[in-house]
Design goal:
56% helix; 103 residues; 0% strand; mainly alpha
């Protein structure tokens, strides 16, 4: 056994109170384990939440291909008709998508 029941309970409680990477790093240092080991144990206990990547503007990332597909859907046309549009700047695609959906 890598972790005692007390250690597991302590880890779960600490991580639940503050679910951050800093908490994982602190627990790893306290228990002389690697952060990967702590994350693995917290995952097995069902409490670990992977951090979600956000863009600089705080949005969920969207690819240009996804934007073109959404634009085509909003316009009611096949995405193939817009072939090559994915090479346009992302902010232009966002403006077109917004204009097509009335946003």
């Amino acid at each position: 056994m890598n972790y005692t029941e007390e250690q597991t309970k302590y880890m779960v409680e600490e991580y639940t109170n503050k679910p951050t990477r800093v908490t994982v790093e602190r627990l790893a240092k306290e228990m002389s384990k690697t952060p990967k080991s702590i994350i693995g144990k917290l995952s097995r206990e069902g409490v670990y939440r992977r951090s979600v990547y956000k863009t600089k503007t705080g949005e969920s990332p969207t690819t240009k291909v996804e934007l073109v597909a959404e634009l085509a859907e909003a316009l009611g046309i096949s995405p193939g008709v817009l072939a090559g549009l994915e090479k346009a700047p992302k902010n232009v695609l966002k403006v077109l998508k917004g204009a097509s959906t009335g946003e």
